[in-house]
Amino acid sequence: MATIGSRKDDHIELTTHEAVGFREKTTLFECVRLVHDALPELSFDEIDTSLEVFGKRLSAPILIAGMTGGTERAQRINRELAALADELGLAFGLGSQRAMQKEPASVESYRVRDVAPNVLLLGNLGAVQATATPTDGVRGLIDAVGADALCVHLNPSMELVQAEGDRDFRGCLATLSRLARDLGVPVIAKETGSGLSAPVARRLLAAGVRHVDVSGAGGTSWVAVETLRAPSERKGLGETFWDWGIPTAASVALVAAEPFETVFATGGVTSGLDVARAIALGATVGGIARPVLRALEAGGPEGARALLERVRTELRMAMLLVGARDLGALRGAPRVIVGELAEWMAQAR
To answer: In this structure, which CATH number among 3.20.20.70, 3.30.230.10, 3.40.50.10240, 3.10.129.10 belongs to the domain 4-347?
Structure first.
């Protein structure tokens, strides 16, 4: 059985260099048609993309979503991207901190506060692991890295393909309720590439969870990642469920219809236009993961910076072209929903 460190390095290598995207399913952001305003009466320089999340000011509603931790390679990636997020005024997410539980010395691969003292930092722990951990133990993981909030990730589809993955997902909703009530920092219920449905959103709200990350289908398929890692007898299972999940745009629209305080839109977000579409659907922040990792590995921090600056510029351009001076105006901008996304919004509530 693979060690947790080797698994983390496998994940980095596969997401950086292999074809692990969804094969047929898309995010459905292409079904969100923002209506062009030929008379916006705005200057590009006055477009305001700033907002406050969990008490910290962001220059734009962009999260470098959690990817990794637990190894030397992961440590370099986390530190370089966290420093970049701090510089640009964006949010940054850590990968699963399960490795810290199994190998306490791996905490250094998650520590970024010395290079990113002001960044909005999101910790990360699996719901199954959180269920087996007392609240004080979870708080210790957050305190050890100085995180501002905790993502509790939900990933049953991925785990069932992973040879060493979890099989028992009982008690996770009660755990989210416990942590939301007692942890002392915001708790974000986060999927990992398969999306959150409207019924799940309502169950989370009833449990006291007020922040979610939809992490929908259409970007990286974590079933695909685990399929490439899986022994031969499990590859067929992964092939069958490679494209499993709720498209990101559909998940955002369904979840944002409920009264959550914060909705992160991750899963296949690749451009500032995608971020704009997500916010028009009701998201608070758009998150990008694999494109940033690939840009970093191909061109170093400067490559990742160029990508993120392009995304930020694309967002501002989209806002001007719909006549939205700020994010509140973007949320109310005219839009047309077409195709499969319209069907999801009509039938999956």
So the answer is: 3.20.20.70
